[in-house]
Design goal:
Elements (H helix, E strand, L loop, with lengths): L10 E4 L3 H8 L6 E6 L9 E3 L6 E9 L6 E8 L5
Antiparallel strand pairs: 1-2, 2-5, 3-4, 4-5
Length: 83
């Protein structure tokens, strides 16, 4: 998230259950929710990489939970492969 070789610890939860059907209706690709400590550096222009996975994810939304600057909830989806 913060440059080559830089990482932050977070909780990654893939969409499951009824969330999968909603994601399909919204044409989302492999959606997930990330929860992490607040950082003003995180915004929708960043790309996200999960661990050593080579797939990149784009940020759909960023939520400063309760606007307290303690936790962030970030919705992501896998980026489409280049054509």
């Amino acid at each position: 998230m913060f440059g080559e070789g830089k990482a932050i610890r977070c909780k990654w939860v893939n969409a499951h259950g009824s969330e999968v059907f909603v994601a399909l209706q919204q044409l989302l690709r492999e959606p997930a929710t990330i929860t992490c400590r607040y950082s003003a550096k995180i915004n929708r222009t960043l790309e996200v990489q999960k661990g050593s996975d080579t797939e990149l994810y784009e940020i759909i939304s960023v939520d400063d939970v309760e606007e307290r600057h303690k936790w962030m909830e970030i919705k992501v989806q896998r980026k489409e492969a280049a054509r």
